[in-house]
Amino acid sequence: MKSSKILAASLVGVTALSLAACSGTSAGGGTFRAANTTMIVPFAAGGGSDVSGRTVAQGLEAATGVNITAENREGGNGAVGYSYFLGRQGDGNTLLAAETSLLTLPIAQDVEFDHTSFTPIMKLGDDYTLMVVRDDSPYTTCDQVVEAAKSERVVAAVSGSVSLDEVVFSMVEQDQGVEFDRVPYESGGEVVAGLLGEQVDIASLNPSEVVGQLESGDMRALCAFSEERYEYEELADIPTATEQGIDVAFAQFRGFIAPGGIPDDATTFWIDAAEEFAGSAEYQAYIEDNYMQPNIAYGDEFADYLGTASTELEAVFEQ
Question: Signal peptide span per the entry (predicted)?
Fold first, then answer.
């Protein structure tokens, strides 16, 4: 989580892709011709997935010269968008802004896809969460929250049954042998409102969702569910959960995928475009503006990450 990782990411893979894109063929010399492309966002406009999808679409468009339009297909905690995308099998001109629901939906719901149904292109980075409370909360650390949950009711906000905050709270419960009550919300924005409105006691939110409230003093961060402390100045003083005796660190990945069954040269084309994007100022700004960690993976390496993370999540949801 060093700032040097961001610099390194910004230097990754600058290629001669733009020349190949102008000719309409992949950098690998194949016959795939990129045409007007759609970036499916399986969540509503305005959220983290929407920001990610539109940022990637703009970055890929700049790298390739191909017109890429973001299209929101929300519903079912992402299931509607992913199911629509499943129907685009073999279409190299459709992409999807993916995140952890790609892994949690097949585990927790009856859907017709899993991560192996699609073609992984690029993992942009990792988006960890913070446990936050109102400024007037009696809790000052995450281990105090855990201790309270052993003898009293502690109410947690969650934004869906397969959301990252549900995953993180479940992992804390399993690690510490406690149980939180839940109040479900539709989005991170509603979670923030519910916490400030005293409907819940705790929430687990991405830094970009709450940094304004932390800076204003309306909320306090008790710990970060990350492997190391953040080096971003605004977050550097927040201890990790592990430092407080809670062995939980889990991030929501952000990335993009292509449909299953696309030609090999289409896969090569989009991976080359992703590498070009990773070397841009736009990518670096996206990572820094959203307080993410630039842990990039492409193609097969991204697929390996998805397999490992899916196994870890299966253990969480089986409890």
Answer: 1-20
Q: Same domain for 151 and 208?
A: yes
Q: Tens of pLDDT along 147-194?
A: 999 999 999 999 877 788 999 999 999 999 999 999 988 778 889 999
Do strands 37-41 and 68-72 pair parallel, antiparallel, or not at all (unpaired)? parallel
The whole model's pTM is what?
A: 0.83
220 and 137 in a single domain? The answer is: yes
Which pLDDT value is given to residue 190?
87
Class of residue 161 by CB neighbours under 10 A (exposed 0-12, middle 13-18, buried 19+)? middle
Q: How many independent structural domains does the chain possess?
A: 2
User: Across residues 85-93, what is the average pLDDT?
Assistant: 97
What is the Cα–Cα distance from 202 to 207, expressed in whole angstroms?
15
Domain edge (last residue) among 196, 221, 244: 244
* Residue where a domain terminates, one of 226, 244, 262: 244
48-77 average pLDDT score: 94
Residues 6+ apart with CB under 8 A from 219: 132, 133, 134, 135, 195, 196, 210, 213
Give the amino acid at 29: G
Return the closest-CA partner of residue 61 out of 99, 13, 95.
Answer: 95
**Rounded-to-integer distance, Cα 130 and Cα 224, Å:** 4
Contacts of 134 (CB under 8 A, 6+ apart): 195, 196, 198, 218, 219, 220
Same domain, 161 and 64: no
Q: What value does the mean pLDDT take over residues 273-286?
A: 97
Looking only at the bridges linking them, the beta strands covering 202-205 and 155-158 are: parallel
